[in-house]
TrEMBL record, chains A, B:
PROSITE patterns: HTH_MERR_1 (PS00552), HTH_MERR_2 (PS50937). Residues 36-104 form the HTH merR-type domain. InterPro entries: DNA-bd_dom_put_sf (IPR009061), MerR-type_HTH_dom (IPR000551), MerR_fam (IPR047057). It holds the Pfam family MerR_1. Transmembrane segments: none annotated. Keywords: DNA-binding. GO terms for molecular function: DNA binding; DNA-binding transcription factor activity. The lineage of its organism: Bacteria, Bacillati, Actinomycetota, Actinomycetes, Glycomycetales. SUPFAM superfamilies: Putative DNA-binding domain (SSF46955). This is MerR family transcriptional regulator.
Length: 162, 162
DNA sequence: CTACGGGTTCGAGCGCGCTCGAACGCAAAC
DNA sequence: GTTTGCGTTCGAGCGCGCTCGAACCCGTAG
């Protein structure tokens, strides 16, 4: 099916980078979550600070219950949501949009089309951004080549001599 | 030579997107700059505000001379530098680093190795970032597929039902 | 008993990169 | 001669996403 193809394509693009493999596992292996987690555990898992997790909660992005001591208890649903949220943040989706998205998600299935629209827009944003960065990468490599290789002295002026 | 290969690769990746073609031209066709430009012209060319150009000047990133009226006159060297600077900014290099880089550039050829180091580090940062975004793109496409296609209802739980 | 480690709430502060407003200058158009 | 338009300087303000400090609570180890 199409989704397998997508993941396969992603894996192709990512190669064997261990960090990426770990990250892909977070996509493909969501069942491996502990029954419940402390804030420190979640922070470690997602590579964010406990401060940030509390901030996300304050921002209304996720609800977290407390134990008898008043300490946060992250259930698997909360953790999965935070996995999603941190990925979206990492890829540049603004807090505002995430707050909107989460409000929609909490409003029920009727909002699926609008959520889909948001995801599609984000997908397009990501594609544009990747193109931009790819272009900048090419320009940077070009500059490194003219600088380091000294292979094309007549091309050095391509962007002046900074 | 190697630099041609890099640009060729970039063009392959970019396809026929008009915006990208325009951008590539900014890399490959630096000779087409007017003798001197006003702040409004440069702002338009680089798609930034005049405010931002003045800000960059204040930040020490570029020196710009004035005409008899005190208005800024951007000569080709300044424009080329700003092309470079805006591309670096667009690709996420912090102002701090650009200030350092420019200080090195202004200090003469002895600083070429350090500038090269900075470019190489930036290149690596870009590669990592592109990988991250590619991963997020795959995850987003995956989610769109499970949402929109309804093709894999048993996979919907991959990231809960946000 | 006390110290320590990890949690809590609250509000304030920060670093970044602009972005804007106020007050002004000059020149060409009406 | 005044209005319009584009420019100038200066310093303040803003939006974003955290990040931090203070004061406090609790359970366990030494």
């Amino acid at each position: 099916m199409a989704t397998d193809e997508l993941l396969h394509r992603a894996l192709e693009l990512l190669g064997d980078d261990p960090l990426s493999v770990e990250a892909i596992q977070r996509v493909t292996d969501p069942g491996a979550l502990a029954e419940s987690m402390t804030i420190a555990e979640v922070a470690e898992l997602l590579d964010v600070s406990a401060h940030t997790l509390r901030y996300y909660e304050r921002a209304g992005l996720v609800e977290v219950s407390r134990d008898a001591l008043g300490h946060r208890v992250y259930d698997p649903a909360a953790v999965r949501r935070l996995v999603f949220l941190t990925r979206m943040r990492l890829s540049g989706m603004p807090m505002r949009d995430l707050q909107h998205y989460i409000a929609l998600a909490d409003a029920g299935d009727d909002t699926v089309p609008e959520r889909l629209d948001m995801l599609i827009e984000h997908r397009d944003t990501l594609r544009r951004r990747i193109r931009e960065l790819t272009l900048s990468l090419a320009a940077t490599e070009f500059k490194i080549a003219t600088y380091g290789g000294r292979a094309a002295p007549d091309a050095v002026d391509a962007e002046s001599s900074e």
